[in-house]
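[job 4471] stage=fold_predict status=RUNNING
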Amino acid sequence: MAINAHQESGNELPEDEQWDWVSPVFLAVLCVMSVLFIKSAQAYDGGNEWQKQSVWCCFGFLVYFGVSLVDYRNLMKYAHFIYGFSILSLLLVFGGPKIYGASRWVDLGILKIQPSEMAKFATIIMGASILSRAKIGDLRDSLKGIINLTFCFLVPMFLIFLQPDLGSTMVLPPIAFTLLYVARIPAKFFVATTLLFVALLGLLGLDIYRYYQHKSENLHSSEPVVAYEENALLPLKDYQRKRILTFIAPEVVDPHGVGPNWNRIQALIAVSTGGLIGKGWGEGMQAKLGYLPPAVAHNDFIFAVLAEEWGLIGSLFALLAYSVIIFGCLKVASKSADMFGRLLASSISVLMMVHLFVNVGMTIGITPITGLPLPFMSYGGSFVVTCFLMMGVVQSVYRHRKEFIL
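[job 4471] inference complete, writing structure tokens
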């Protein structure tokens, strides 16, 4: 591997080489698309969230460039403080307002924030800090780091699950495994955890099957409905089981398609009627006529609005933009000057990847509806700003990369 002239002379890279200019361009593209389709999605009720989203995107870019100028290694110094503050904010939601039966927001008067979004990033910082400092060797030598990382992730997962927010809870395990993999934890650990994951998946499958039997019996019974929770194997809420079962067997939970399966059906109609080039911006009937409910069209199902109005070509363009951003994060991870930067960039890319896959997946019917927002496009200030913050950290890792890696 050759060392270039900049490294040999000890000089810094030229200004135009210090920045990754590709990612911010595609971030701007996604933000423009976000504002356009949020406005279109609210044609039914005339909401003004698209204006608020414009403000959040502009503020997000300021955060992005501001964070880019700061050395990301400072995060390691304050990792415990950032993590502790995020845990405190997760506790505060239980005294905050309930929206749709969930305690996920902290009311600051002029705005409401969703701490779980920032908690994901804070957990990444803490996890990366733990593994960067840990002794990694064979499984026995690595055990302390693994235990500390496990505890680091279990605390926010438990608090987010209690809100309840199963979707955000399930984002964290893939990130934890990414951190462990990049830190080069021995393969034996992954074999053991894979077996544990299969066992837990089997337990979930059994629980959902029993719930399926319960709903089937009640569907054809004239007797009073008995609550399933008394015989439950896992501590899931009824609506969470309904979401999973609606994905697997919608005819049992919602045989007429007017209940939990409604959003999924309307999203599929929106995607399927978009065709190759779509109906044109502002001409999508599912959101415009209110079939895709205004409460979800501009956030959880923003991709359905895009697919109906810009068709397959527009959808692929959006996915291309996400691909450039995600693979850009992985490229930055490979060029990082240290393990901490490598862990940060790779885990942020996985977070974006999970959100993208689950959100688009539930829109096209290949994953259950979980309520995970689409990065940079779904409406929501907390998530938009947090995404820009994370991308700013990735940019900082790039600016402090090893110059000799081509």
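[job 4471] summary: Residues 1-11 have pLDDT under 50 and may be disordered.
[job 4471] exit 0
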